[in-house]
Design goal:
Blueprint lengths: L10 E7 L9 H17 L4 E5 L8 H15 L5 H4 L31 E10 L2 E5 L6 E3 L8 E8 L5 E4 L10 E4 L4 H6 L7 E5 L10 H10 L2 E5 L7 H4 L7 E3 L12 H17 L1
Parallel strand pairs: 1-2, 1-10, 2-8, 5-7, 9-10, 9-11
Antiparallel strand pairs: 3-4, 3-6, 4-5, 6-7
C-alpha cells in the first residue's frame, strides 16, 4: 500500500558527502553501499539525494558521479535501463542492487487509461514524439519533446494507437532525483531551486532527539521542504557547517553501542524517526 501525498512531506532532501565511499575500494561493496542509500531514500520517500563536496581527502568528484550513476540507474524503471544506460565499469555490479519496488517501477506491462508510467522519448515525428513506456509498441505524445529524456506520462488512450500526455501523479511516491554538487554543504543547500525551509543536521555530539521531539515534530509538519544533512567517514556536520545555519542539530542514535555510526546507518535511523514524526 502506498501512502497518499497528504500523509508525507511534500519535499524531503537528504545530503550525503562525496567521501561516502572513501573507505571502500572493492567495486561490489561500493555498489552495494550506494544501493543502500537508494533503497533507504525510496523507502522513506525522499524527493532529492544531494551529493555535496565535504572537501576531505577521501572525497572526489569521480566518486560523486559514480554514486549519481548508480542512484539514477536504481530509480529508472527496469524496462528502460538498457536504453538509458550503456554498459560501463560503474554498472558492472548492478545485479546486487536491491530493487526499489516503487509505484513507478511496475512489475508487469498491464495498464489502463489514466495510469502513469515513466517513458523514454525516442524520436520526434510529424504528430509529436514517440515514447517507450515499456509496452509492446511505442506510445505517441502529441507534444514536441526533447529526445532521449526519461519523463513521466499519463496514458490517455490504449488500443491500436497508444496516446500519452506528460504528467506525474500527486497521490503516490514517484521516486527521487539525484543531484551532484561540487560545492560545500552550505552552498549545496542554498543552490537548490526550491530552497529548504527547515534544515536539520545529524551528529552524535548533538542533543538527543527525544529532548526536543515535540518541537521538531511541529516544525516538520509546518515545513514545505525539509533538508536532512549527514556527514561522512572523515567529516561530521559540526566541521562542515556552522550550527547557527541549522534549524536543529540532533542525535538520532543516542547511546550508540559502536564507536562510530556509518552514514547509511545514520540515514535509515534518522529517516525512520522522521517518518513516524510526520505521520502522527
Amino acid at each position: 500500500m502506498f501512502l497518499n501525498r497528504e500523509s508525507i512531506m511534500e519535499k524531503l532532501s537528504i545530503f550525503i558527502p562525496n567521501s561516502y565511499l572513501a573507505e571502500t575500494k572493492d567495486s561490489k561493496i561500493r555498489t552495494y553501499k550506494v544501493g543502500l542509500l537508494g533503497r533507504y531514500a525510496a523507502l522513506f520517500r525522499a524527493n532529492n539525494i544531494v551529493i555535496y563536496n565535504d572537501n576531505s581527502d577521501g572525497g572526489s568528484r569521480d566518486d560523486a558521479l559514480y554514486m549519481k550513476t548508480i542512484l539514477e540507474y536504481m530509480d529508472t524503471p527496469q524496462y528502460l535501463r538498457k536504453q538509458v544506460f550503456p554498459i560501463t565499469p560503474e554498472l558492472k555490479n548492478v545485479g546486487i542492487l536491491p530493487p526499489l519496488r516503487t509505484p513507478h517501477h511496475p512489475l508487469t506491462d498491464e495498464c489502463e487509461v489514466g495510469d502513469f508510467r515513466q517513458g523514454l522519448t525516442t524520436k520526434r515525428v510529424r504528430k509529436g514524439t514517440m515514447v517507450d513506456i515499456g509496452l509492446d509498441r511505442p506510445a505517441l505524445c502529441k507534444e514536441k519533446l526533447s529526445v532521449n529524456k526519461v519523463l513521466s506520462f499519463r496514458i490517455e488512450r490504449l488500443g491500436k494507437e497508444i496516446l500519452v500526455e506528460p504528467d506525474e501523479p500527486d497521490s503516490v511516491y514517484w521516486g527521487y532525483k539525484t543531484i551532484t554538487s561540487d560545492r560545500n554543504l552550505y552552498d549545496s543547500i542554498t543552490m537548490m531551486k526550491n530552497k529548504p525551509d527547515l534544515v536539520i543536521g545529524t551528529s552524535k555530539y548533538a542533543p538527543n532527539i527525544i529532548s526536543i521531539l515535540d518541537e521538531v515534530q511541529n516544525s516538520i509538519k509546518q515545513a514545505q521542504h525539509v533538508a536532512i544533512l549527514f556527514g561522512g567517514p572523515y567529516s561530521g556536520i559540526n566541521s562542515l557547517i556552522n550550527e547557527r545555519k541549522l534549524d536543529y542539530e540532533i542525535n538520532t542514535v543516542p547511546k550508540q553501542g559502536t564507536e562510530t555510526v556509518r552514514t547509511e546507518e545514520a540515514l535509515v535511523s534518522t529517516l525512520a524517526i522522521f517518518n513516524i514524526l510526520n505521520l502522527e
